[in-house]
């Protein structure tokens, strides 16, 4: 069951991916294409990730791993394995039929768990015997070191799909580098025993036309969703999502589309704006004033849209109907603010109202949170931060307790 009606209700169950050999398949040549800024040291990245998972467990959160969930889903439904492999191969954009056939044969002969890890790690050309080259395409594809690229961003489970109420929005990812992640999400949400009998409503689909990524979606309460019109999420996707959401019989009545700057530093709404307590948020000062917000409200037939230009505080106060406190990432100093936002200082993961997990490196913001009375759980972050995502980006809540 999916149950997420807020950003801050006590976290009961969360989906993570422990980083693996996909990080060791990164090279300087592919960093830009694969959306990483550096090559993390895997051993330390795993240690840091284990600290993250243990911090969650120590606070009563059930930690589920994507690779386990996917293995269990496919083992429960062997009849879909063939389609799953074909979808993966097709979306890895291999043009040569000879190579596609060889890849299929290779993957189908692995155990389900090994197959999933291989898909994530990337498949090098020397790992597979393709047989005699038959076409120019076969020979051309031979020049690149991978038949299928690694999927390092699967570390950021926030993005391929988003839990919204009792449903989900599966992402249409902005870049090809991340689109295969949503195949995994789709199969888990459809075939895992936890979901199969009563699958979550899908408010957005991975093959829809316009991009929408989970990091842009914040469930402010059981009636209101905030979504970033961002580098990664298109306003037409937001309208489609809102329409589907309002069609279902839920309490959601408002979608607030925040027009945020389109840059890598601000790639998703949750890189500049996360909730930490009732009426309390961390923000990057860049979105504080003169923010354009499109208020999308449910009506009898579809929805109305109103454009509002104002301060973030006013917009939130109006909709949440309570006093708002904004904590500015990095405080007043411009350099500190930009540096700590770059290292995900505004990307907090609330595990209960007023209790957040953050990266230890953002010490100025973290002290401000402590001063504001927030319980701050710091995790080590020297390697994890190299992929440009923080504790919220690395986690997808599946269940939270309801809040008043
Ligand atoms: N929600 C997030 O902001 N996720 C971080 C994603 C980082 C990843 N390297 C990306 O560029 O997609």
TrEMBL record:
Keywords: Arginine metabolism, Cytoplasm, Hydrolase
SUPFAM superfamilies, A to Z: Pentein
Name listed for the protein in its UniProt record: Arginine deiminase
Signal peptide region: none
InterPro entries the record matches: Arg_deiminase (IPR003876)
Keyword Chloroplast (UniProt): no
A matching Pfam family: ADI
